[in-house]
Design a protein that fits this description.
heterodimer, A: 613 residues, alpha+beta, six-stranded mixed beta sheet, 17 helices, 27% helix, B: 312 residues, alpha/beta, four-stranded antiparallel β-barrel, 8 helices, 10 strands, disordered N terminus, disordered C terminus, binds guanosine-5'-diphosphate
Chain lengths: 613, 312
């Protein structure tokens, strides 16, 4: 069944099914029957089938798909596995994803690159919650073409009405979730009916076999739409050659085409399409090329080259579907990195507008997103990005979210649209600025950021510093954690998400006060490095002074001025920093106060000395 | 100024073959891996996958020259043909080749006959690779591994993060969506990048044929002197191979599906004398290529263990 021809096309497929629907058996059989299983694997397959298989003396194709050791020991699949097979006409890459609810992350990952999804159902059980969930997720990831493989037909006597009923139910559902094209095929993965050869048991079925269908659907290599290419790298071997290298995301490009570079908006004309094998007269989606332009324009990594007449949008505030992919929940207000195309920018999420029940599509209220949850969120970017709505272009509308501290990929998103605010909100230019106020006050501005455990002495020391500054004629203001929580932040609790928002608001207030020309003292536990770093990023160079009031947990707990540690230990207070909520100590604070040895007065003196106001 | 051509005038580009798509994807991966800085290197073993990888790298960065050197972690037990091939590749004007031989192994005279294949491979290759990466401060290493090579590789990422000690932690691997790769790493961490992840053995040969790439002659059948060890045909490539009692080398028409250390690489009987013949042979026969490589037989899941230890 394989081919001598190197001209076959490529189709990428994602497979989804619940445990025991027969997914491994089905894929294993396709590999086997397209002669894509190597001899030695067949030998071990025969051996393993006899030892561990479920099919007596026959081959158990499911055993072809083994995985990581730990998974094998547990007998479950927990990650996306990629399988390969080919026929005379096509080469297939199959992203095999596990079925459990907690693996939404994997289904989304596998679906992101797929042209088509195969969903399995067990003919005896019909449509299950999982079927709905998988349909929704693959649709969300932009797959418009689904094969519903109704498996184990042998166990329902190859019954036509059973098949038809499931087909009927599924079609009406698929329409609701935006799946345009559905093909239902009755199969027995175990016996091979309608997998690669037409079933003799089901003469009533006149459609194609699974393999026939996969061989004949159009693949998306010729992505329709306007030309888009994200610049990966500027190729500059000599002063007289400057090209931009990238993978064409959609459309086609020819020399002479007018293009616009986003976000700058500069326009030029394509001069050459350069490859090592010579210049191309035309290049389309899916090719990696290097473009040169007629004018010397500034285009570099992160830019999006677009057809000038149909450019992408540019915005710094977006609404998007977000799939959360990490054990650490999404923290609204925290500054993450967002990578879209080849551009990486800072991004903060507002609290989700809603979370989706991926089984029922119901909208649920949510303050955050946990691992494997899907929601709709507004994002604020620190610089604008060029994008297309995901439903129009999967390559220019999808993004990943990266944690700044761990560098882990923690989420993925699909842009819905730019928030209008982003277009219309312009900053008001002001005439009296910070410098002017500083001159009037007669001193510089500072934000003294006191961080440390509850009971470390932050507030006492901050008070002491403020008294002395005030006495010296310096205009000050003290923002204290407890006080702010009574007013501005009275709606926030102590979950990680709320702590992040708590600190974000205070950082913004501190920034405004610094702008007003004051010396601001902030006394907040502020347990997370990321938020303290965010606060620092809001202020001018040298303005932010991180003061780490350092005492060992045992000392703070022994002091326990408000009796809070005792309560937390008794379990009456949850999410208490140091007890059941983490404190990330600053690595390089401007000032570190050893509060076990220094008195508050000594500490204040040391701080004021360092300020040099 | 000319009017923007309409879509109708813009007839579609010719449809892409699967090899063109794989090529473009690999080029994209290579460019992403180096575009945000670091010290990249390409691991080079003279094998067919390395050959394809090198060719793709040239395409990715042309008309610039390769923006990284090649690194061969030598074991001193490669086939002689591989060394001569390496010399030819190293002589190309755009290639800077670094050869690393683990000095401890040289001193201790590590060899597969006395120390066994596992220890031999671990010390020369796994330890040797770590030494070389540390020595030169490389933090992005391209390798030619493919997901179809072995079941445990089917879930491997295109870009995988290694700790300071070159450890691979299955829990730290990042989801890879669309064509978006997260290349960020903390100080001390490094990336292993596998641009051929989605290629199969057949794709590799078809590509070598299409692009007309030179290969080590051992891939093609020729009369060679071999001994039969429990079904494995081991080539007597030099006089270091100790012959077992009763063993006498015979000349047979053989070729190799994978090339490694000659005492650990099994040949297959074949009459395929061109790349086209190899492809035809592959389409009719289907012995998974690693069968010819002794090291995988040591334990089930051995590849995975090696990966955790830092071997590719
Ligand atoms: N009778 C019958 N059994 C099947 C069929 N497909 C799979 N099975 C059996 O269902 C069980 C689960 O199959 P498996 O492929 O491991 O399911 P997975 O969890 O979806 O990968 C195994 O015992 C298979 O032999 C089928 O078409 N008919």
């Amino acid at each position: 069944m394989r081919t001598r021809s190197a001209d076959s096309t490529l189709l990428r497929v994602v497979t989804c099914g619940s445990v025991d629907d027969g997914k491994s058996t089905l894929i294993g059989r396709m590999l086997f029957e397209t002669n894509s299983v190597h001899d030695d694997q067949l030998v071990s397959l025969a051996r393993d089938s006899a030892a561990a298989g479920t099919q007596g003396a026959e081959l158990d194709f499911a055993l072809l798909l083994d995985g990581l050791l730990a998974e094998r020991e547990q007998g479950i699949t927990i990650d996306v596995a990629y399988r390969f097979f080919s026929t005379a006409r096509r080469t297939f890459i199959v992203a095999d994803t596990p079925g459990h609810e907690q693996y939404t992350r994997n289904t989304a990952t596998g679906a992101s690159t797929a042209d088509l999804a195969i969903l399995l159902v067990d003919a005896r059980k019909g449509l299950l919650t999982q079927t709905y969930r998988h349909s929704f997720i693959v649709s969300l990831l932009g797959i418009r073409r689904v094969v519903l493989a109704i498996n184990k037909m042998d166990l329902v006597g190859y019954d036509q009405s059973c098949f038809e009923q499931i087909e009927h139910e599924y079609r009406s559902f698929a329409e609701q979730v935006g799946i345009a094209e559905v093909m239902c095929i009755p199969v027995s993965a175990l016996r091979g009916d309608n997998v690669t050869t037409a079933s003799v048991e089901m003469p009533w079925y006149s459609g194609p076999t699974l393999l026939d269908h996969l061989e004949s659907v159009p693949s998306i290599e010729q992505a329709p739409g306007a030309f888009r290419m994200a610049v990966q790298w500027v190729n500059r071997p000599s002063p007289d050659f400057r090209g931009v290298a990238g993978l064409i995301a959609s459309g086609v490009v020819r020399p002479g085409d007018r293009v616009r570079v986003l976000p700058s908006g500069v326009e030029t004309v394509v001069d050459r399409i350069v490859t090592m094998d010579g210049d191309l007269p035309v290049a389309g989606a899916g090719r990696s090329v290097t473009l040169t332009f007629a004018d010397e324009i500034d285009a570099s990594r992160g830019d999006l080259i677009c057809e000038a007449a149909q450019p992408a949008e540019v915005a710094d505030q977006l609404q998007a579907h977000v799939v959360w992919m990490h054990e650490a929940e999404l923290l609204p207000g925290r500054s993450y990195l967002l990578k879209l195309g080849t551009r990486t920018v800072g991004a903060t999420f507002a609290a989700p507008r809603y979370r989706l029940n991926v089984n029922t599509l119901e909208h649920l209220a949510a303050a955050t997103l946990q691992l494997n949850e899907v929601g709709v969120c507004d994002l604020h970017l620190d610089r604008p990005v060029a994008f297309d709505p995901y439903t129009e272009n999967r390559q220019t509308g999808g993004f990943i979210v990266i944690d700044r501290m761990t560098n882990a990929t923690v989420g993925a998103g699909m842009v819905k649209f730019a928030l209008r605010r982003a277009h219309n909100l312009h900053r008001q230019a002001v005439q009296v600025d910070k410098r002017a106020r500083q001159r009037l006050n007669g001193h510089d501005t500072r934000v003294l950021w006191f961080t440390g455990l509850s009971g470390s002495g932050k507030s006492t020391i901050a008070n002491e510093v403020e008294s002395r500054l005030h006495a010296a004629g310096i205009r000050t203001y003290l923002l204290d954690g407890d006080n702010v929580r009574h007013g501005l932040n009275h709606d926030l609790g102590f979950t990680d998400a709320d702590r992040v928002e708590n600190v974000r608001r205070v950082a913004e207030v501190a920034k405004l006060m610094a702008d007003a020309g004051l010396v601001v003292l902030v006394s907040f536990i502020s347990p997370f490095t990321a938020e303290r770093r965010f606060a620092r990023s809001l202020l001018d160079e040298g303005e932010f002074v991180e003061v780490f009031v350092d005492v060992p947990l045992a000392v703070a707990e022994a002091r326990d001025p408000k009796g809070l540690y005792a309560k937390a230990r008794r379990g009456e207070l949850v999410n208490f920093t140091g007890i059941d909520s983490p404190y990330e100590p600053p690595v390089a604070p401007e000032i570190r106060i050893d509060a076990t040895t220094l008195s508050p007065a000594q500490a204040a003196e040391a701080i004021i000395e360092r300020l040099g106001l | 100024m000319t009017a923007t051509p309409t879509k109708a005038a813009n007839t579609a580009a010719p449809p892409l073959t699967h090899l063109q798509r794989l090529e473009a994807e690999s080029i994209h991966i290579m460019r992403e891996a180096i575009a945000e800085g670091g010290r990249p290197v390409m691991l080079y073993s003279m094998g067919k996958d390395s050959t394809v990888l090198l060719h793709l790298a040239r395409k990715a960065f042309a008309p610039s020259v390769l923006p990284f050197p090649l690194l061969h972690v030598d074991t001193t037990f490669k086939f002689r043909d591989m060394y001569s091939f390496r010399d030819i590749v190293a002589a190309a004007p755009d290639v800077e080749l670094i050869v690393h031989t683990n000095p401890d192994c040289v001193t201790r005279g590590i060899n597969p006959f006395e120390h066994g294949s596992a220890m031999h491979t671990n010390l020369w290759k796994t330890e040797g690779l770590k030494q070389a990466l540390d020595l030169h401060g490389f933090d992005v290493a391209f390798g030619g591994a493919r997901r179809d090579e072995e079941a445990s590789r089917s879930k491997e990422r295109v870009m995988s993060v290694r700790s300071k000690n070159h450890q691979w932690d299955p829990k730290q691997q990042r989801p890879e969506l669309w064509q978006l790769y997260n290349v960020r790493r903390s100080p001390g961490e490094s990336l292993r990048v596998f641009p051929l992840s989605n290629w199969t053995e057949l794709d590799v040969w078809q590509y070598i044929e299409r692009e007309n790439l030179p290969i080590v002659p051992l891939y093609l059948a020729a009369p060679r002197s071999v001994v039969d060890r429990g079904g494995m045909l081991i080539m007597v490539d030099d006089d270091r191979l100790p012959l077992l009692r009763g063993e006498s080398p015979q000349v047979r028409s053989v070729r190799f599906r994978t090339l490694g250390c000659y005492p650990l690489s099994g040949a297959v009987e074949s009459t395929a004398t061109s790349v086209a013949d190899i492809i035809d042979e592959m389409l009719s026969s289907t012995t998974s290529e690693r069968e010819g490589r002794l090291i995988d037989h040591d334990e089930a899941g051995s590849m995975e263990k090696k990966k955790q230890d830092g071997y590719f």
